[in-house]
Amino acid sequence: MVTLKSHAEIEKMRAAGQIVRETLDLLGEHVKPGVTTRHLDALAYEYITSHHAYPSFLHYEGYPASVCASVNEMVVHGIPGSRKLKEGDIISLDVGAVLDGYHGDAARTFAVGEISPENARLIEVTRECFFKAVEVMTEGHRLSDIAAAVQQHAESHGYSVVRALTGHGIGREMHEDPQVPNFVTSGLGMRLKNGMVLAVEPMINLGTWQVKFLDDGWGVVTRDGKNSAHYENTVAITENGPQILTL
Ligand code: MF3
Ligand code: CO
Questions:
Q1: What is the domain count for the chain?
Q2: What's the 99 CA to ligand 1 centre distance in angstroms?
Q3: Rounded to two decimals, what is the model's pTM?
Q4: Which atom of ligand 1 is nearest to the CA of 65?
């Protein structure tokens, strides 16, 4: 069931979204060679809880951490641990926070020190895919327009779009209907309406779109081992156009 949000609810989600964005900014400052993903997770927990919010991911279906930290060929849902970041790695950090009953969810992919031009381009195009999607996030467009915008932009650069995972509605729950695919499926998809709030999250691979699920029950990696990038924001569709609540 898709729930439409009132103006007051969207303002609450903007407040949650602001904490998510600030957390990502903080983490970005700490991404450097030698830092463990567990350290980044601890910083996020501390920042979110000290701002009277709670990390949405912690204990979600048993997830053991506050953020997802996905390095290189890991697409999403990397569990933070003792792995140390190395010069040239890319790391996607995904953060959720719930404040006053409403969630915000966003992800960025960061460079660890100097990275290759190929990786830098992947990160940039993944970000652009998100903004292509935002252009069609107005009432009357369809979910399939979001999918087409992301897929077209990624594939025009020779990249592929992950299909096993999608974006999602968000609000009182972190994951609400509808699913928001980043690739075109059969059918037109639901019409977008003012009051819908969606987490739009392109996951873009250098090589194949196919992925594998790790034995830890969470991690998702590319099947060919090539790198993947992720960029996500929580976006409200309103009569004044799309509003990005986590920027
Ligand atoms: N941000 C992720 C998403 O958009 C959720 C992370 S899964 C969790 O679907 F278990 F870590 F919460
Ligand atoms: Co999400």
A1: 1
A2: 17
A3: 0.97
A4: 11
